[in-house]
Amino acid sequence: GAEVLFSVDCTKLADYFLPEKREFDCIYFNFPHCGRKAGVARNRELLARFFRSSAEVLTEAGEVHVALCNGQGGTPADQPRREWHNSWQIVAVAAGAGFILSNVHPFKAETIHGYKCTGYRSQDKSFRVEGALNHVFTRSTPLLRFKPMRCEIELGSRKVSFQVPQVLMDKINRGFLEVNSNHPVQTVKEKLAAGLSQAFPLQRFDDCLPLLQQGHLNSVCHSNVFWIILSPEETPSTEEMSNGPANAVLFSHVDFCRDTDQNGCVNVQEGCHVLKQYYLRPSLLPYAQAIIQKGAFLPGTLHVLSGPVFRKCLITPYSMPVFHEMVFVCAVNRGTENSCIQMLVNNIKTSIHSLHQTVSGFQLSISLREATSFATTELNDFAAFESQLSKIQYFICMEIDTSGSCEKGSCVGIIRTAHYEPVSSDVVLVFASLHLDLLAMLLCGISDWRMLWTSDTRFLRQFPRGELRLFKSFSLYPPSYVHDVSFWVPDGEEFDEVAFHTIARHVSGETVVSIQLIDSFQQSETRRKSLCYRLTYQSCDKALSRQEVAEMQLLFRKEINQCLRVTLR
After folding, report:
1. Domains in the chain and their CATH numbers?
2. Which residue numbers delimit the FDX-ACB domain (predicted)?
């Protein structure tokens, strides 16, 4: 009962079907080959043209199945695996047409009634299909191209609008912690709050925390902060003010600031104007301290704050320029702080173990370790930044393997204590801070923080509201591309590596997964310093083609030349 068409050119599928018949749910291509002794390059080109043709006749949720002989695909699923240059590189080829590999499984010819493999070197001869694999491709969401974006918020008694830093354009106002959200970060947050409410009376401050803060950051390196500068030329005119919201103020973002004062705070001047300094909040701790200073707290009550925080950081699998923090603060009598800490940690442990029961596949343990037992090199970025804010007494560590060691990335929380003399010398404040995103990643087996921020609906569909599941990636074996860049550093200037990584983040749309310093050279005569870095591009959720990466690399070279004043080699 099926309609059969012969002599169809797989690279021009749209030519053979009327527009109303171009909505296929599935396209199968078993063992494509150019014929005779065609090399890998010609067969890659055949696949590239086939995938581009398939994109024209496939439904949005459709699948493309391609069966290849063992080793041809070039993915880790092939056993044994061919060298990359000697394979058909099917995942990279498909990415050029906007497809990602979502599944791969053995091709079993014996289960297909009447199937016969034939055509070896264009002859009526069979070929080996033992170990053959069926590759299932689906459409990728497109790479995001953002236009300049402004965010309007209330700051004190007035409304302000600021330009969102490029690297954060897809991460502002995502609403992961909203009441009706089924995002795993929200599930972790609510489970923790519910568990702690069994031991403490809670008071929550989730909706009243401004994104912008103002003032000096005495202990924090300025290069780790997203600065927002109030600029006179951006202040609206009288006419604009009358047409816009009352008391509106416009802000601009400063990505790479060099002129700083002794406290590491940006010192920008324009004419005779000193520009007001704001920054996107890097921590919720100042808000917790403000609550205490205003006296808006009850001894024995656990005050809870949560929301996204923003920090410039180096590119690593567990380093995030934005993540969701949950802060607890409780005032207790001197001498009882240790029992309060133990009660707090025990309830956190219970809540996390309860969430873990719905996720199988690994062992989990949580421990409280004294900060003095950690070497600086052992700290992940979260713990290292928190150490800049104020002294830490304990780290909360989460281990998900059987090695028994607290690895980098597994420090998920910190605990501090402080005395509060204005109320009573007998009162001690206990502060705890948890990294909700890292907790969700470790619990759900998510190896890449970028997946938490994906716009692909296949991510959230895996998490029913209020439940955590072991995450199953919908983009398997994504291709990676390597590019090197070398340059001379400006004379007399310290190279800002955090700014270098931040440029890579926003130019690539967070597709740079690794930056390694592979060479450093200094001329003996001039003392000029040259650096060479290797960038690895790879997307965890989207199709990323070789051509797109080449364009990103060219833009990256241009940006570091302009923003960091390096001389490209």
Report:
1. 13-139 (3.40.50), 149-234+276-461 (3.30.930.10), 481-568 (3.30.70.380)
2. 476-569
